Amino acid sequence: MLAKAIAKESGAVFINVRISNLMSKWFGDAQKLVSAVFSLANKLQPAIIFIDEVDSFLGQRRNTDHEALTNMKTEFMSLWDGFTTDQNARVMVLAATNRPSELDEAILRRFTQIFEIGVPSRSERSKILEVILKGENIESNIDYDYIASLCEGFTGSDILELCKQAAFYPIREILNSEKDGTRANSPRPLRQSDLEKALSTSRKGKKAASSAASGLQSPEWIRPSDPEDDQISEKSAVE
């Protein structure tokens, strides 16, 4: 969410790189796909290349790594360096990870700025809720501040998932009414009670995730930043 917001504010094209889309069963295709990403960014600049869970792609190199993965990493870093030397290039590489300690040193050297993005505060969670539900079919009496107070420790992505889960309740009611032969023409507006129901189930998974993450410590080279949703690294400014 934060990376998309940066792209929107800067007026840059947002290119979301999914590692699964870069992998291919054909040897050598991965490097071609990586090259295609940078070629596209160069043509559409100003552009932002975003890699989520970058540790799964550009993590520390090991002897057990497959040759295709190693070649893909090398190709990515080589093309990345090309934009660094081109003063006219307006391409930014952003990456997010929950495991910064697992990133390759060669990758870390290429990031000029590295920030730790914490979880949003209560007021920020309330604003995130408003943004997500803006323009949706909802009841006007939803108390965003109250729902935000129940979402302690939630990230922006967690809140988005919460809203998606809550939206299923009106749909389920339509499906159930169809069985009774009394199907409504359209789903009813989303209620605060829907969010509370979704919250009561999602919190269980959230507590488990928080417990697992509490044992992880950020490396010393990460400096704190404003609360947001993930750890974001930025390469160069988009002009």
TrEMBL record:
Gene3D superfamilies: 1.10.8.60, P-loop containing nucleotide triphosphate hydrolases. Residues 179-239 are annotated as: Disordered. Keywords: ATP-binding, Mitochondrion, Nucleotide-binding. GO terms for cellular component: mitochondrial outer membrane. Signal peptide: none annotated. Residues 1-118 form the ATPase AAA-type core domain. It is a single-pass membrane protein. GO terms for molecular function: ATP binding; ATP hydrolysis activity. InterPro entries: AAA_lid_3 (IPR041569), ATPase_AAA_core (IPR003959), ATPase_AAA_CS (IPR003960), Mito_OM_Translocase_MSP1 (IPR051701), P-loop_NTPase (IPR027417). It comes from the Eukaryota. Residues 141-177 form the AAA ATPase AAA+ lid domain. It is found in: Mitochondrion membrane. Belongs to the AAA ATPase family. This is AAA+ ATPase domain-containing protein. The lineage of its organism: Eukaryota, Viridiplantae, Streptophyta, Embryophyta, Tracheophyta.
